[in-house]
Amino acid sequence: MGRKRAPAANSPRSAAQPSPTVTAHPLASEAKTKAMPPREGSRWLRTCVRIVALGAAIAAAYMAKESTHVLCLTSLTSEPPKAQSQNVGFMAQVLQKSKGQNICKPEGVISDTCTDFNGAETLRHRIWSPLDKMIRTKFFRTLKVDLYKPCEFWRTEGSCFQRDCIVKPLDDHNVPESWQQQTVDHTNFGPFLGSFPRQRLEHSDKDFAIVNDETYGDGIWVDLIENPERFTGYAGAGANAVWMSIYQHNCFGVAPYLQDTAGGWGSQLVNVDGKSMPFVQPPRRRRELLFFLENMSEEERGVTLPTDVPLEYRVFYRIVSGLHASISTHICSDYLNSTTNEWEPNLGCFISRIGAFPDRLQNIYFNFVLLSRAIQKMEPYLANYDYSTGIAKDDRAVKRLMPKMLRAVKNSGFVFDEKELFQDEFGPAMKTEFKDNFRNISRIMDCTGCEKCRLWGKTQTLGIATALKALFSYPDKSFRGSFTTLDFKRNEIVALITTYFQFSYSIKGIEMFRGMYQDFVTDWRASQLD
Questions:
Q1: Residues 428, 473: Cα–Cα separation, whole Å
Q2: Which residues of 135-162 are buried (b: 16+ CB within 10 A; e: fewer)?
Q3: N or C: which end of the chain has fewer CB within 10 A?
Q4: Is the dihedral of CA 458, 463, 466, 467 positive or negative?
Q5: 235 pLDDT higher than 80
Q6: What stretch of H or E contains 398?
Q7: Residue 235: exposure state from Cβ atoms within 10 A (0-12, 13-18, ≥19)
Q8: Which of 104, 165, 447, 453 is catalytic?
Q9: Angle subtended at Cα 146 by Cα 144 and Cα 148, rounded to the nearest 5 degrees
């Protein structure tokens, strides 16, 4: 976990060991005595040892400088070697994986799943084209969201009024009329009192989030493509309070150390105390990257999950952690360069937000797998869903693209076993607690002071909750036949597919940042030759 290893009990550093007595040959001793006086001989011997040591150090430095075949990173320090953290090692591998060369490629099974990193990345490549085109159609880019619901948990500092925080609403004439029809239930109290609107519940027993049904209640229509998730400038105590509350009060006590500048959706340039917090820059030498990441890692402060955490709690934490990391990756992938006023990826941002919490990077993959499994299970239902909008071009596109995506996900194999969760005697009570806590997270998103951050926080929370609902609220047979027992709202389907795209985009971003780091190192090496 990045800690120094204690010297072994029999090592030279553990205790002073008496030197073994060596008896010299009499003739050799006599020859040395005749060659020079004892004091001069001792001085000559020390001088030779120093010259040899200096030569060895120069040779080692030269070899280290000239070596270009660094496959796995090592920390070149004078300190004893550290026990390399699995998470930090994974982060180093991800950044070191070169384009097409698979150098230090992350391998192995993704924890708590039935697939590996290679399988997740391969599936991401296969679904990207149909998924990227599909989310741009009218059905999937249009969503009704209640962005002005008050925070239930604390007094917020107000909203962010910067240009990039504001959500652009969609004009009603751009929304299909069938979606705008308001359905209001009434309860009849007799001829004297008449009828009154029935109070609708925020969620059903099967829901893992607050579902704002588009057919009733408050909310505004938005175009998700016109309001992308990106850097907004929203930061400070308000931004950090959201994630602090989620981790500390809703993750079953599995609460990591959360640095101030990692919590918000916006800039890390200003800390909660108003002081400047510039992005860290990655080292230019590959061999220094692991030591750099070890120093950034928060694992020494108790971030790594204890081994005795129940699977259900571990999965919950991975979901939240992966969502946090995915949002951070989107921000760093589409970051406003204040010098050029251009939107571009920011490598320093990515290292700062993810490098200090390398387990979150792994959990992006976990969430992608979880969503993939939910879509596998829902495949018959999604294949027969009515995606019509009245726009012929878009309707034909969805009809063509959805089967391609579903086929790729189905053919990826069994990636996650939801039946391992909630199976023992405590399962029912644990599932109820799981639902309650995740619903609470969907409420906490109302406390975000940035409209655009609130939009994407609520949308992706609903998307993950829809996946959990499919996995844990309905048996497999419910997704076959007439689907009469299923209750999924249109906005749940939109949120599910949109969130699946967002995590796919995050993995694509990880691949992009790998390439950026390789270019970063290559450019520096070239500059040293000039």
A1: 11
A2: bebbbbbbbbbebebebeeeeeeebbee
A3: C
A4: negative
A5: no
A6: helix 392-410
A7: buried
A8: 453
A9: 145
3-state secondary structure 205-241: CCCCCCCCCCCCCCCEEEECCCCCCCCCCCCCHHHHH
Q: What integer is the mean pLDDT of 472-477?
A: 96
Nearest to 347 by CA among 499, 118, 521: 521
Sign of the dihedral through C-alpha 512, 517, 520, 523: negative
Q: What span, in angstroms and rounded, lies between the C-alpha atoms of 457 and 465?
A: 12
Residue 263's closest CA among 284, 282, 277? 277
Reduced to 3 states (helix: H, G, I; strand: E, B; else coil), residue 199 is coil
Number of other residues whose CB lies within 10 A of the CB of residue 15:
9
Task: Tell me, yes or no, if 72 is annotated catalytic.
Answer: no
* Catalytic pick among 160, 251, 349, 450: 450
Length of the chain: 530
Closest by CA to 326, choosing from 353, 364, 293, is: 364
Model pTM?
0.75
Query: For 344, phi and psi rounded to 5 degrees?
Result: -160, 160
From 105-114, 229-238, 269-278, the region with the lowest mean pLDDT: 269-278
Supply the pLDDT for residue 24: 39
CB environment 314-343: b (16+ within 10 A), e (fewer): bbbbbbbbbbbbbbbbbbbbbbbeeeeeee
C-alpha–C-alpha distance, residues 161 and 399, integer Å: 40
Neighbouring residues of 347: CB distance < 8 A, sequence distance ≥ 6: 282, 332, 513, 516, 517, 520
Question: What number of helices (H) and strands (E) belong to the chain?
Answer: 16, 6
13: which 2 tokens? Answer: 């550093």
Residue 517 has which token pair?
Answer: 């780091």
**In angstroms, rounded to a whole number, what is the distance separating the alpha carbons of residues 222 and 209?**
20
Q: How far is CA 407 from the centre of its chain?
A: 26
d(CA 268, CA 262): 7
pLDDT (0 to 100) of residue 263: 42
Residue 196: strand pairing partners: 187
CA nearest neighbour of 180 among 217, 146, 207? 217
DSSP symbol at 145: E
Cα 438 from Cα 304, distance rounded (Å): 21
Instruction: Say if strands 220-223 and 195-197 run parallel, antiparallel, or are unpaired.
Output: unpaired
